[in-house]
Design a protein that fits this description.
- There is one protein chain.
- The protein is an alpha+beta fold and 66 residues long.
- The protein has a single domain, classed as Head-to-tail joining protein W (Head-to-tail joining protein W, gpW).
- The chain has two helices and two strands.
- A two-stranded antiparallel sheet has the order 1-2.
- Helix 1 packs antiparallel against helix 2.
- The protein is elongated and about 40 Å long.
């Protein structure tokens, strides 16, 4: 399950890489992953995946009926 903290970490890493601050590393699936300008598209894809999972879980909670 994706968390908001993971999404925030990934977005911060993207900002670091795209602003030329060098390599950014995050924890993904229990392992450290490093991103550079060369593989920034993978990081963007990971962010979209996290956003999708979080949006999906929020929609399910919003429509829960008791």
């Amino acid at each position: 399950m994706a968390t908001q903290a993971q999404l925030d970490e990934a977005k911060a890493a993207l900002h670091k890489v795209t602003t030329g601050k060098g390599v950014a590393s995050i924890q993904k699936d229990g392992r450290k992953v490093e991103y550079t300008p060369v593989n920034v598209s993978e990081l963007r894809s990971y962010i979209r995946e996290l956003e999708s999972v979080l949006a999906s879980s929020q929609r399910r909670r919003a429509f829960r009926v008791f």
